[in-house]
Amino acid sequence: MAVRKFKPTTPGQRHKIIGTSDDITARVPEKSLVYGKKSSGGRNNEGKMTMRYLGGGHRKMIRIVDFKRNKDGVPAVVKTIEYDPNRSSRIALLFYADGEKRYIIAPNGLQVGTTLMSGADAAPEIGNALPLQNIPVGTVIHNIELRPGQGAALVRSAGNFAQLTSREGKYCVIKLPSGEVRQILSTCKATIGSVGNSDHALESSGKAGRTRWFGRRPRNRGVVMNPVDHPMGGGEGRASGGHPRSRKGLYAKGLKTRAPKKQSSKYIIERRKK
How far from chain centre, in Å, is Cα 72? Predict the structure, then answer.
């Protein structure tokens, strides 16, 4: 995976940096695993805007991605690696030995033709999904469950990876990409390797129009609004707006919003880096 830079023949090309599609092997998705996505434009069933700065964008199809990897003991061959407009990572199409087809998040280094497996008996190799208790300490992992059978909830975006650092009783200690160190039940599944498309972080849209293609509309700052619209609005001239706050009046920089008595806090050994 690499990125492409362009000659500044137009203002939009000057700062444009996009990923290459060298790793993509198929342009059309598997028909049985997609369905149409309805665009709401940020409106609810009454037509009222409940989420701002959304709307427009290219039409998308939802690819059904298997985050549970619950087809244990059945080998699967990687048939294609495809683009998914709904996530930053690539997806891989698996053909199982019993004829079923499923999409998974494509890990870094996964090749077409590779045979993958999930379950407790699977080898700890790239793309295989197995319980944390069967993964060697120090292994790089992604797609981590928080509850057994729930499906992957952590470490799913492009280039991310976590590390299994140790075991404590029925828990495994995982270092997450944010720097947080926490305990997760050993019976939860994770996938070996890091998420692919690691150069996604280097991409730059280059122009406002490209951002609109993704369905994101312009976001105006609170400082330029009127006092009725935002706590930082109003004032004569270009007023800075006082303490940075959200639209609802909460401090935007440094205010802790996590519930102090949250049940899962006992599993966090070390907080994420500030």
Answer: 24
